[in-house]
């Protein structure tokens, strides 16, 4: 599902939550949406799902405007952090309601996901714990198979085994039924390996949009004798530096060319990868 966002602005009174965002998502991929608290992730997903109308700019999904357009919103699903179910009735009622709203609903798959997360059909939705509500949301999001499916920190309250189950189920179902998935998360180390493409926003603006491989290739860890590390990294963007006795390690940002790699090898330096989380911290300005 093609998602085109152009000069998107969303204001809440005096607060500009999205500030002229532009990007295009193409093909069926799992996209990671990363940003610090208050950076505008929920605001962006809410506009894509037509829960909110933008203040300015355009949003097209599958080439069509999304707001108040039932033909498009049927194909779009946003699961927010506390799940996406009404507080009335039982889990079974919630599934019935979800099926009614979602044309690609797979009832058998929904039942098997309920089992996976230990949810019983007769459970009252109101009495569910935070993690159970999130799991219920994940069931609705996955079994709905919407061509554009978005999860906004949908795992909140879920324990580590349940999050792992969500990760595995999402990946398996995406491979069996490719679709466009956007997932916002603060758990970058945990969910980062799922992302083929990453969008990073900060204060309502886009600071990076790249495939994960390219993004990761911009960071390198340089390890070796302190004086050699220092000489090698002079003039480079150093994100972080640590020293342990005579050895030092520096994290540098920016792709290294062949000549630089050869120079590092000649100086006895080891070059290694940097994690997505470190790059994210750098791109969004470190501590404020
Ligand atoms: N209903 C609202 N009314 C007024 N301001 C709002 C409203 N919702 C969000 N904001 C503001 O808009 C900005 C973006 O908020 P948003 O919830 O989109 O961020 P987020 O990236 O999802 O944050 P988090 O990671 O903390 O969930 C923030 O400054 C927030 O205070």
Automatic annotation (TrEMBL):
The record, for SUPFAM superfamilies, names:
P-loop containing nucleoside triphosphate hydrolases (SSF52540)
ABC transporter domain mapped to chain residues: 3-228
Keywords, A to Z? Answer: ATP-binding, Nucleotide-binding, Transport
A family per Pfam: ABC_tran
Q: Which GO terms describe its molecular function?
A: ATP binding; ATP hydrolysis activity
Name it: ABC transporter
Q: Does the keyword Transport apply?
A: yes
Q: Which organism does this sequence originate in?
A: Nonomuraea cavernae
